[in-house]
Amino acid sequence: MSLTSILSDRDNQELRDKLKTEFLRPAFTLKTEIKAAPLTNNWGIVGTAFDYLMRFYLQHHNKNTFIQRDTWVADHSYKTLTNQFSTSKQTEVRTGFHRDKVFKTKDLLKIITDQYDQTKTNYSKFIANGQLTDDLIANTIYLAKLDAYFRAGIIDQNFDNHNPDDIRDLHSIISLVDKTNFTAKHQCYFNPTFGEGSMLVGGADADLIIDNTLIDIKATKHLKLDREHLNQVLGYYILSLIGGVNNNPNDRPIENIGLYFARHGELWTLPLHQFGDQRKFEEFKDWFISYVSRGRMTLDDLKDLMLSLKSKPEKPAKPVVKKKVVAKKTTTKAKPKATTKKEKVVKPTTKKTSVTKPKTTAKKTTKKK
Length: 369
What we know:
6-stranded mixed β-sheet; globular
C-alpha cells in the first residue's frame, strides 16, 4: 500500500468523506492558459522525467540548503536489472507491456549501464554549471523508465532511444519555472519521507518542501484544485505530524501546502491554519492512525517488530552452536549402550532385528562423526 493507493481505494470512502467534511475545499482563483501543452501521449514518463529534472534544477539553485535521500528510485531498478542480466543464463529478454520486443541480454545490459553512467556524468555537470542540455533531459527520461520498472515491473522497450518530442516537451515545462518560487532560505527537501508516518501507510514520499511549504508537483493539462490533489497534500502533512520529516521525528516544518502546475508555470499555496487549528489536525491524526490500523499492525506493533528484528541476529548465535555440540555428544555415547542392551536381551529373536539394526546404527554414527 501507499498513501496514494489508500486515498484512492474504493473501500476507503469513509476516509475520503472524513477529509471532505473536516477540511473544506478552499477557493481556487488561479486562471491562466496552458503554456506547455503535451506533445505526445507519454504523460506518465514525461511527468516522472520532469520530477527528476525539477530535482536537478532545485539542487543547482539550492546548493547550500538542498536535502535529499542518498539514492533515487531509479537506482534500485538499475541495481536489480543489472544484477539480473549479469547472472541470468537466458540469452534473450522480452520487453515492453506486451513483451513483444526482444533484446539479447548482453545488449540490453550494455544499453542500461552505458546510459546510467552517462546520466550520472551529465547530472554532476549540471549541478555544477546549470547548463541544461538535450542529453541531460534524455537522461531524465531514461530515469523515468527505470522508475516504471520499479513501480510496475515492466522493462521499457525503448531504453535505447527516447522520443524527441518528449525532450522538447520537457524543455518547455522546465522553462516555465520561476526560480524565485523555489529558492529556499533555510532548507529544501526533495522527495521527503515521514518516518513512522510513511511506515504506517506502507510507504509515502512527497515531492518537495521549501522551508515551511510542502509542494506537490502536477504536470496535468487542467488548472484546477481537484479534491484528490488536496487530500494528497493534506495526507502528507498528517504523516509529518506522525513521524516528522525523513528520519527526524522532531522535524515538523510544514506550515503551508501548495500545488505547482508545471504546464502552466503556476504555484498555488495556502496556510494550513485556514483549515483549522492545531488541535483539529491532532485529532484528525489520531483518527487517521486508528482508521489505517484497523485489522493491521499498529505503530507500536511495527516499532516492536523492528526492534525484535534488530536484536534477533545477536541472540540465537551462541545457543545454536551449543545445542549442536551437545547433540553430537549424546548421540555418540547413548546409542552404543542401547545397542549393547538389545544384543544381550534379544538374542533368541530373528537375526534381522537383533543383529542388523545395531550394525547399521553403528555405521551411521561413525559417518556422522
